[in-house]
Design brief:
The chain has 403 residues and is an alpha/beta fold. It contains 13 helices and 21 strands. The radius of gyration is 22 Å and the shape is globular. Bound molecules: adenosine-5-diphosphoribose (APR). Keywords: Oxidoreductase.
Length: 403
């Protein structure tokens, strides 16, 4: 009897084995628990890490609706702040768009992801949910059967396993779910956008009452409030840049120049507590299902942070998948599950399209050749149309907040 066979035969089982305790995995888990569907969440990291990992925090109106619909919005209602203004700064001046009066008139809600994740897992555990921290999913076995199983390893390296009727891969881009897909099972659409950002978290109050998008000949700069005491900044940098090569002084000097602080007001400085380089790239898996293995969130596809869609797509997919799993496991209706992939991909591709539009709005095409100079004129026309055309502003608002 092989090790994996002994692991399989001696393990636990449930209806749905969920890999990953991020927004996708935790929304899915809470909804399945509420519907009385058995599930377990396997999370590689420990609770402290999951609850303190600062990532996104810009929730679309639909995400707030989903969380409210399922009683998951208490923390968000207490600590979230509605937000609806973008400020664009260019060499030709600046303009603001208050999108609460554009398109469908919906705002974003600023609520740090680590606080949302903490709310979701606290609620899941308080309701009797089974969440295994420090339990890594090593591989998903037999996904094309009605008894897929997940090989696991705990913090001490001890092997284990969980069998389910279904496995939900919500373990991100580098997780076990993607790794366990047989060759040719899905197609991966990829695009490297050729742009990199230095992603910064500063212990400084926001300097604008808006999301700031600065388009400067030295490169893009972005300003996003996170809390009254912390601000996320982005600085376009050379691909392959090491974060350590940017001192705090150099960061604030460059932000000051690109945000045109001399014209529009000084930035509040503070300690830089997080500095990472993000290469803007996207990928989309198709289909989002292989037999009894489903993919949601970043495991289904990576989207660049240019339009703050990642966490919102994760929550949307989690609700669609949860309702479809309940229909199958509780109501013996496999229809919605068979439509899960197509429904999610329609939202994902729309978000990818807008995310690329934002990349082309905010960044100059590299180089000085004819193509680059032509693209630059197109980019300037895009900015000018956004500044002056109400129709374009409505389209922008619907896609910026919509998901
Ligand atoms: N086994 C168990 N857990 C794993 C494994 C594994 N092999 N690999 C990764 N994980 C866990 C990670 O530790 C993480 O907690 O899976 C979780 C995935 O969570 P997220 O990365 O937040 O992914 P998702 O829920 O899809 O949300 C993605 O959130 O932060 C935003 O913009 C970001 O788009 C992203 C979105």
């Amino acid at each position: 009897m092989t090790d994996s066979q002994s692991v399989r035969d001696t393990g636990d089982s449930t209806d749905v084995v969920i890999l990953g305790a991020g927004p996708a995995g935790l929304v899915l888990a809470n909804l399945l628990l509420d519907a009385g569907v058995g599930c377990v969440v396997l999370e590689r990291a420990d609770r402290e890490h999951v609850q303190t990992r600062a990532r996104a925090g810009f929730l679309a109106a639909n995400t707030v609706r989903v969380l409210e619909r399922h009683g998951l919005a208490d923390g968000l209602r207490r600590g979230g702040r509605e937000h609806s203004v973008c400020e664009f700064r260019t060499g030709d001046g600046r303009f603001r768009l208050d999108y609460s009066g554009l398109g469908r008139g919906e705002p974003h809600t600023v609520y740090p992801q680590q606080e949302l994740v903490t709310d979701l897992l606290t609620r899941f555990l308080a309701a009797g949910g089974d969440l295994r921290f420090a339990t890594e999913a090593v591989a998903v076995h037999d996904p094309d059967t009605t008894q897929p199983w997940v090989e696991t390893r705990d913090a001490d390296g001890r092997p284990g396993r969980w069998t389910g009727r279904y496995v939900a891969g919500c373990d991100g881009r580098h997780g076990a779910a993607r790794r366990s897909l047989p060759p040719g099972a899905v197609r991966i659409h990829r695009r490297d956008h050729g742009v990199s950002w230095l992603g910064l978290l500063a212990e400084a109050p926001p300097s604008l009452d808006a999301v700031g998008y600065a388009m400067h000949e030295r490169g893009f700069a972005g300003h996003m409030a996170r809390t009254p005491e912390t601000t996320r900044y982005y600085l376009q940098c050379e691909p392959g840049t090491s974060p350590a090569s940017w001192s705090e002084e150099r960061i604030w000097d460059e932000l000051t120049v690109r945000m045109r602080a001399a014209d529009y007001g000084a930035l509040h400085h503070g300690r830089i507590v997080q500095s990472t380089v993000v290469d803007l790239e996207s990928d989309v898996l198709e289909p989002l299902r292989h037999g009894s293995l489903f993919l949601a969130g970043d495991a289904a596809g990576l989207i660049s942070p240019s339009a703050a869609k990642g966490a919102n797509l994760a929550v949307l997919a989690a609700e669609i998948l949860a309702e479809a799993l309940v229909d199958d496991l509780r109501n013996a209706d496999p229809g919605p599950l068979s439509r899960y992939s197509a429904r999610c991909l329609a939202h994902i591709w729309r978000a990818q399209e807008f995310s690329l539009w934002m990349i082309r709005l905010l960044h100059r095409a590299p180089g000085q050749d004819d193509e680059a100079l032509f693209q630059e004129q197109l980019r300037r026309a895009r900015v000018e149309s956004l500044r002056t055309s109400r129709t374009h502003q409505d389209w922008f608002a619907d896609n910026y907040v919509g998901i």
